[in-house]
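[step 3/7] inverse_fold.run input=structure_tokens len=75
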């Protein structure tokens, strides 16, 4: 996979298209976060997975807006 730093959303779209094309039709787009190979949800750009140092729990952060949430954002 190649990533163009001037168009990072294109890379996310390209990766997602490859994952969805490999799935049976009945499983596509069910509102569930897509899983990456390591079992972590695939996050939409520019969301980041972070860890709360006070309790070790994962949360999700959107650096452009400052929004954070406990549930993974949907693609």
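[step 3/7] decode complete -> sequence:
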């Amino acid at each position: 996979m190649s990533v163009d730093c001037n168009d990072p959303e294109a890379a996310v779209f390209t990766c997602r298209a490859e994952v969805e094309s490999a799935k049976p039709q009945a499983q596509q787009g069910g509102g569930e976060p897509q899983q990456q190979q390591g079992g972590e949800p695939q996050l939409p750009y520019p969301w980041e997975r972070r860890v709360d140092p006070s309790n070790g729990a994962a949360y999700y952060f959107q650096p452009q807006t400052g929004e954070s949430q406990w549930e993974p954002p949907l693609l």
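[step 4/7] annotate
Residues 5 and 30 are 30 Å apart (CA to CA).
The two ends are 19 Å apart (CA to CA).
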